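REQUEST FORM: STRUCTURE PREDICTION
Request ID: SP-0412
Submitted by: Lab K.M.
Chain count: 1
Length (residues): 191
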Amino acid sequence: MLVFQGGLALGSLAWGSLAGQLGSPGTLTVAAAGVALGALGAVRWRLGDARREAVASWAAWPEPVILGTDLDHHAGPALIVRRHRVATAHRAEFLALSRELENLRRRDGASDWSIYEDLAAPDVFVETFALGSWSEHVRQHGRAVVADQALLTKLAALSEDAGVVHLVDARALAAARARGAPIDPPHAEHS
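STATUS: Completed
RESULT:
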């Protein structure tokens, strides 16, 4: 956000200085020429072709179980904790792929992501990622695309799913309980 605001301020300074020297018609002519050059450049240097099948939606994870029907879906933040059991022979490759997993999680809305090693169980890695609300996590399940399948398949081959826990800010749950919402015990699920 700060970078965006700084860029906006610097751009305003540059265009204002140019307008002071050339006047409004000259500045608008320069801007129009820039747009035209950008369009010509797009013809010459095309963006990579994204295959439609690579960005088609893919049901990578089942729909998460909601604790109660009256839970405010905008409650948050939500923290997802996933455990991966990894054999010693696959540790280095798993950790290398975890960088790509971080990119996937952040692309799909995670604001924070980390991977930890469980000191009591050295073959277990604990992945955590946070989202702004429970509804963002539910939407995250629908953001997986076919192109993600290769990474997730590799990770599944290197590790065993050792469980997932979905957490929502306790104050949001307390507010739901105060409204009389039936908060059921969590069910086993995958994320």
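NOTES: The chain has five helices and four strands.
Reviewed by: T.R.
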